[in-house]
Amino acid sequence: MPYCTQCGTQVQPADVFCAGCGTRQGAAPPPSSGPSASPGPQSAPKPANDVLQNLTGRNASLLCYIPVVGWIVAIVVLASEKFRHEREVRFHAFQSLYLFVLYLFVEQVFSPIARHSESTRFLSQIMQIVVFGSWIFMLVKTSQGENFRLPILGELADRSVSEQR
Q1: pLDDT class for 23, splitting at 50, 70, 90?
Q2: Region class of 65: left (phi > 0), else alpha (psi between -120 and 50), else beta
Q3: Once rounded to an integer, what is the mean pLDDT over residues 96-114?
Q4: Which residues are paired to 24 by β-bridges?
Q5: SS3 of residue 24 by DSSP
Q6: Which tens digits make up the pLDDT trace of 75-95?
Q7: Sign of the CA dihedral 71, 75, 76, 77?
Q8: Which residue has the higher pLDDT, 122 or 36?
Q9: How far is CA 33 from CA 6, 24, 39, in A?
Q10: CB 61, CB 88: distance < 8 Å
Q11: 103-124: b (≥16 Cβ within 10 Å) or e
Q12: How many Å apart are CA 89 and CA 7, to the nearest integer?
């Protein structure tokens, strides 16, 4: 008679789940290789780099340019060991972070100040459109495999990548 792969409780051959612990039976990995194994050096939490293992450089660069939330991916990419020596991926991560900082400036600093005048309110709206347009533009360029440098932000990103070496 078979036993549970997790807790060792006796199970029936037709059981899909263990009655004792609820672990899926049959296709379940042995206790020493799964994430739910008993604590020990073999079952330590996997580092974030494992999440990035199947992610290509181009896809990582693309994810960095997702409007408003791409900065999170950019930080993960910059912190990962996998992309530590991939200059272009790191460039896109830095450029997207600088684009996010520009977005924050427009949204949190310039827009509240611009509410006092019709002309500055219009300028604020134009700046918001330019920032979102830049994110979309960079998504398209990066998806086509082009390494486009935005004015000023691209230079800052190049410097940031160079300082890291």
Answers
A1: confident
A2: alpha
A3: 91
A4: 17
A5: strand
A6: 999 999 889 899 999 999 999
A7: positive
A8: 122
A9: 11, 15, 11
A10: yes
A11: beebeeeebeebeeeeeeeeeb
A12: 44
Rounded Cα gap, residues 68 and 102, in angstroms: 11
**Buried b vs exposed e over 136-146: b needs ≥16 C-beta within 10 Å?**
eebbebbeeee
Rounded Cα distance between 91 and 94, Å, is 5
Q: Write down the mean pLDDT value for the chain.
A: 83
Judge residue 132's burial from the number of C-beta atoms within 10 Å of its C-beta, 0-12 exposed, 13-18 middle, 19 or more buried: middle
d(CA 109, CA 139): 26
Going by C-beta distance under 8 Å and a sequence separation of 6 or more, which residues neighbour residue 92?
60, 61, 64, 65, 74, 138, 142, 147, 157
Q: What residue type is assigned to position 91 of the chain?
A: F
Matching residue, tokens 């293992």: 53
Q: Could you give the CA distance from residue 36 to residue 8 in angstroms, rounded to a whole number?
A: 14
45-to-80, 85, 102, 132, 162 alpha-carbon distances in Å = 16, 24, 35, 37, 32
DSSP assignment string, 97-115? HHHHHHHHIIIIIIHHHHT
Tokens of 3: 């036993």
pLDDT of residue 96: 95
